[in-house]
Give the backbone structure.
Amino acid sequence: MSKLFDEIEEVYIETNGVKLHTVLIGSGKPIILLHGFPDFWYGWKDIILGLKDKYRLIVPDMRGYNLSDKPEGIENYTLEILIDDIKGLSEALKLGKFCLAGHDWGGPIAWGVAGKYPELLEKLIIINGPHPTIMRNLIAKDKDQRKASSYIFEFIKPNSANLLMDNDFKVLKAIMSMNIETLKGLFGGLETVQNISELSKRENVLSEFDMEKYVEAWSQPGAVNAGLDYYRASVKDTFTTGGWDGSINVPTLVMHGMKDIALTPKILNGLEDYVKNLKIVKIENATHWVMIDAPEKVNSSIKEFIGE
């Protein structure tokens, strides 16, 4: 995987009052790839390798993560601000119309960009990332999703960064590798996943090199706490963004790993009520980390959806 670092261009893009460390690679139709928590640009590595010969890929570290700026204060991590980061990123790079993909936290942000600024997007791709309105309603009304989301109450505590950083990032490593024994005390959604023991038998797991890169990213001063501020801000504004009713008028591909312990398949229910042009791909044997578990399926689905 070290070969990837020889091919990428790394730049710092000024947008919306911050500088975002951004990886650029490939040529062709532009696609911005947005990661989630506790990820950084490198989480897209297998997707980058699969798409770089066909598309121009723009892969930022989101604000607060890895080498990007980390402004202090929960008010700097609202969905509204995160959406405008991506609008500014596209304008700084003069992309014109582009495709946008988001995983985990990158999902709500991508949904929001498509909702607020549909004129910017050609197509939208969501990978295990909840539509903000559906997620808000599920947490309020559905016991399974509420239980699966119970970890958020640990994440929003004032000193939660210490919990995640203790013992050489033991919990963060467990989240990325799906170490069920370590996660049992944190994730209430484990019981909602069928054949939970199979999660430990994943064929594709992070290598030692991969994990070293994650530790480097998590070790950046303030990075873990800033990532947690996404959750703290979302609890205060409940995934809202002014002036958007949740409707999506951009052609949308939604991929979902069906063994996700944090986002139940119920987040797919009712999407057709908000998205006019929708395609759903269910990936049965993938966890939340679909790009690790099923990169070939992700890449082929994106190529088919976007085209030349």
